[in-house]
Amino acid sequence: MRPNDYEFIRQIVYSHSRINLGQDKQELVSARLGKRLRATGRATVSEYCDLLRTAAGTEELGNLIDVISTNHTYFFREEGHFEALRDTILPDLVRRRGREAGATLRVWSAACSSGEEPYSIAIALEEYFSAHPPAWPRQIEATDISTRILTKAQAAVYAAETVSRMPPATVKAYFQTGYAEQAGLYRVKPALRSMVRFRQLNLLEGALPFNEPFQIIFCRNVMIYFDRATQEELVQRLKSKLVPGGYLMVGHSESLTGINHGLKIIRPATYQNPLS
Ligand SMILES: C[S@@+](CC[C@H](N)C(=O)[O-])C[C@H]1O[C@@H](n2cnc3c(N)ncnc32)[C@H](O)[C@@H]1O
Q1: Catalytic residue chosen out of the listed positions 32, 96, 97, 148
Q2: Active-site option among 5, 10, 42, 144
Q3: Are the C-beta atoms of residues 21 and 14 closer than 8 Å to each other?
Q4: Which of 10, 34, 12 lies closest to 23, judged by CA?
Q5: Is 92 marked active-site?
Q6: In this structure, are residues 201 and 150 in contact, taking their beta carbons and an 8 Å threshold?
Q7: What is the phi/psi pair of residue 215, to 5°?
Q8: How crowded is the C-beta side of 109, counted as CA atoms within 13 Å?
Q9: What distance in Å separates the CA atoms of residue 21 and residue 144, rounded to the nearest whole number?
Q10: Is 262 helix (H, G, I), strand (E, B) or coil?
Q11: Is 144 among the catalytic positions?
């Protein structure tokens, strides 16, 4: 890839998604672009860049972001967050329920990828409230920049090896087992699916489309792709959507050290908005 083509790709990706591709990512980007070159019938990266400069390129931009960003995720990723949810966060929020904690328990999975994160949250809430009644009406909002990955999330169909990380009893309770041509596939049961609302959202573009704040926000393993200034901007945006005393979970490799956030650290990668 010619250096000026890489620079063009870097800039267009940054301006659309704020994903910050370092100089060290050129080989990776080159490998990932191969798929888009084939799909669009372009022979070289330069030709592909020319396509991105045209009106038709606006549509292609979404596909470019799709191949550049990493959608890697899995059920109950970073288990410590789910333990904290069960042992500390939900008991605390339940104690404050109906006062500052709000009538509906609202959780946001920001950058939800193919759905494993919001469905894990839905399962964790189900398990908690069946063990600790009364139930609390709940709503999980799940967003991602990629419409392709959201289609997968909404389909809620996963391969056997994807669900095999969970205990068999959990799989039995929350998944339908595929048969015939669906053999080896598992689909999240409708009751759980109905708790999660998916929508496309660029976390850094425009006003965040939520009128009601959240008690809990998961924004994990996406900040690593952003530069420091963008991370700070994002944390402020997320904070503006947290109730007082609400919780923010970030990926365990995404320290907020050095970021001006005004949140209280509760445990590794878990922050709380101060109670006003
Ligand atoms: C590695 S996945 C993280 C999935 C999940 N949160 C987890 O921790 O397993 C990162 C996701 O961030 C999304 N993403 C990247 N840039 C984004 C942006 N500016 N706004 C919203 N989502 C973005 C990607 O499409 C991808 O699905």
Answers
A1: 32
A2: 144
A3: yes
A4: 10
A5: no
A6: no
A7: -85, -30
A8: 28
A9: 19
A10: coil
A11: yes
Per-residue pLDDT of the chain (276 residues; tens, 9 = 90+): 899 999 999 999 999 999 999 989 999 999 999 999 999 999 999 999 999 999 988 889 999 999 998 899 999 999 999 999 999 999 999 998 866 556 899 999 999 999 999 999 999 999 999 999 998 999 999 999 999 999 999 999 999 999 998 999 999 999 999 999 899 999 999 999 999 999 999 999 999 999 999 999 999 999 999 999 999 999 999 999 999 999 999 999 988 888 889 999 999 999 999 987
Task: Report CA(101)–ligand 1 centroid distance (Å).
Answer: 27
- Please list every protein residue whose CB sits less than 6 Å from any atom of ligand 1: 17-19, 69-73, 77, 111, 113, 117, 144-146, 149, 202-204, 220-222, 251
44 within 8 A of 4, measured Cβ to Cβ:
no
The residue contributing the CA closest to ligand 1 atom 27 is 113
Ligand 1 pocket: which of 144, 162, 227, 254 to mutate (most atoms within 8 A of CB): 144
**In what helix (H) or strand (E) does residue 82 lie, and over which residues does it extend?**
helix 79-84
Burial class (CB in 10 A: 0-12, 13-18, 19+), 112: buried
Distance CA 169, CA 234 (A): 37
- Residue pointed to by tokens 């001006």: 260
